[in-house]
Amino acid sequence: MTTRRTYHHGDLRQAVLAAALDVIGTDGPAALSLRDLARRAGVSHAAPAHHFKDRTGLLTAIAAQGYDLLAEALAGSPDLRDRGVRYVRFAAAHPAHFQVMFQPGLHRADDPELLAAKERAAAELRAGVPASTDAARDTGVAAWSLAHGFATLLLTHNLDAPLGGRDPGEVFRSLTGLLDSAQLGGGNGE
């Protein structure tokens, strides 16, 4: 006699998101399949579609969640350097989110939840730049570029040897200190 096990999941949306983040962290976003995620969550293959509609919807939800987490990580940071350190630490703590957030071809760019989350994160990034002049915005872009580049190199293991087991956030902090001491162009009119 075969008995069919019925299963009601307490929070299917979160279970599918967690399973998706595991898959992305291990195999990358291309490996995602709603059918596989349903199997992992122990629900019917159609169940995830009730929350995400399709794979792109799932990746959009992951990106929105990532931007919200980034905004939280940056909130209350005292200065631009610390925001950069927090950015790097966010990427190290949430590599699957980070992978999806910055690949616009993976998600729906016009999704209202995603747009709101991106704006919250952008506002936190801008809060580290004291003035709204062109020079201040350029400083913000330079700082973001440095932090994002460092985080990307970190996640792709290109910094494993140079870091030598040191804390990535503290190494990033040291690097920004080197830039301060070099004064980006001499700072003396040269």
Write the layout of secondary structure elements.
Elements: H1 12-27, H2 34-41, H3 47-52, H4 55-74, H5 80-93, H6 95-101, H7 112-126, H8 134-155, H9 160-163, H10 168-182
Question: Care to describe what's here?
Answer:
This protein is an all-alpha fold and about 190 residues long. It has a domain at about 55-180: Tetracycline Repressor, domain 2 (Orthogonal Bundle), CATH 1.10.357. Helices cover about 65% and strands about 0% of the residues. The protein has helices spanning about 10-25, 35-40, 45-50, 55-75, 80-95, 95-100, 110-125, 135-155, 160-165, 170-180. The longest helix has 22 residues, at about 135-155. The protein is globular. The model is unreliable at about 1-5 and about 185-190 (pLDDT under 50).
Distance linking N and C termini: 86 Å
- Oligomerization category of the chains in this entry: single chain
- Please write the string of helix (H) and strand (E) elements: HHHHHHHHHH
CATH superfamily of one domain: Tetracycline Repressor, domain 2
Shape designation: globular
**Largest sheet, described in full?**
none
According to DSSP, the number of beta strands is 0
Number of helices: 10
Helix content: 55-70%
CATH C-level of one domain:
Mainly Alpha
Examine the secondary-structure arrangement and name the CATH architecture of one domain.
Orthogonal Bundle
Measured by DSSP, the beta-strand proportion falls in under 5%
Q: How many whole angstroms does the radius of gyration measure?
A: 20 Å
Unreliable residue stretches: 1-7, 183-190
Structural class: mainly alpha
Instruction: Examine the coordinates and then state which fold CATH places here, giving the name of the CATH topology of one domain.
Output: Tetracycline Repressor, domain 2
Question: Quick check: average pLDDT?
Answer: 86
